[in-house]
């Protein structure tokens, strides 16, 4: 095994062409992001993880049904719209919102090394998801965010090798995480603009 970010598909490696963001590679990277919620605390973030997984499934189902029309996420959305469908497009909308939330939260944590995760995730929520949630969902998120682990514990889990063979230094982890988040931010921003 290896440290977490080295075991999953990186958003850095998701191809983006003039035609758009590669659907299959994007889904692999999104699945890798979902695993971060296990490191944050599976119980506290179970609803977030389930929502992301469900929406990844909606996009994957559409891709599997029409791979020739879904090579990129942009093609998938355009072709689904032309067929007067919206299941995958709606799933992708919510997936992007969840990815934006996670990205902003971790970017906030990265920008301020003394900020605890609960605070960084609250700020990420305020900037991304809160405006889409009703009163009940806001309460559920508030409770989940209170369950964030301490920053040091989470970063230790991200850096460690579960087998104890190797681990990243905090500087190496920070550099790798910054690249991962920057690439995710580019993809999310691009697709949000496409939707507009």
TrEMBL record:
One of its GO terms (molecular function) is ceramide 1-phosphate binding. Pfam families: GLTP (PF08718). Residues 21-159 form the Glycolipid transfer protein domain. InterPro entries: GLTP_sf, Glycolipid_transfer_prot_dom. Keywords: Transport. GO terms for cellular component: cytosol; membrane. PANTHER family: GLYCOLIPID TRANSFER PROTEIN-RELATED, PLECKSTRIN HOMOLOGY DOMAIN-CONTAINING FAMILY A MEMBER 8. This is Glycolipid transfer protein. The lineage of its organism: Eukaryota, Fungi, Dikarya, Basidiomycota, Agaricomycotina.
